[in-house]
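Supplementary Note 3. Input sequence used for the single-chain structure prediction.
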Amino acid sequence: MSDNSSSSENWIWGAYSPLGLSIALIAFLADQLHKWWMLSVWELQLHQKIVVTSYYNLVYYSNKGISFSMLQMDGMGQYLLSGFAVIVSLAMAIWLAKSGDSRLMAISVGLIIGGALGNALDRLHLGGVADFFEFHLYGYYWPAFNIADAAIVAGVAGLLYDLVVPSRKGAANQA
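The predicted structure, written as discrete structure tokens, is reproduced below.
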């Protein structure tokens, strides 16, 4: 069997796929369990806000748009955004399988996939993404977010770090 045929057979599963997809599952479950807790146990949607500190509140916002509540959509728009998140997640899983070359990249991709799928499920189940964490300082309020959003941001930061900072393995090969 040639190298080309073996690599094309593994387009869906690579060396770091188990790590990346395990991280995706953990991020997804953490996000969904937290949302269940906030909405079913605390019933946060019944309160305007819970002041935790002078700079942090627990709130409930249903974000029907994309990042920072841009492009607000109802109805079919939520299905379109969910479908887009699923397609991007599948593409990232394939990218992980084909080009997985570091643990950091696998963890980062897993965080993005888990967060995207968590928010996609919200759109289908709740009609928008449930956001709870609200930070503010001196009258400036950062947009509310959730665990899935934090996972996506951490994943993107990890990918950028992995892209910008040369790996020790690559540096050792050049020496």
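Residues 14-174 form one domain. The chain has a mean pLDDT of 86.
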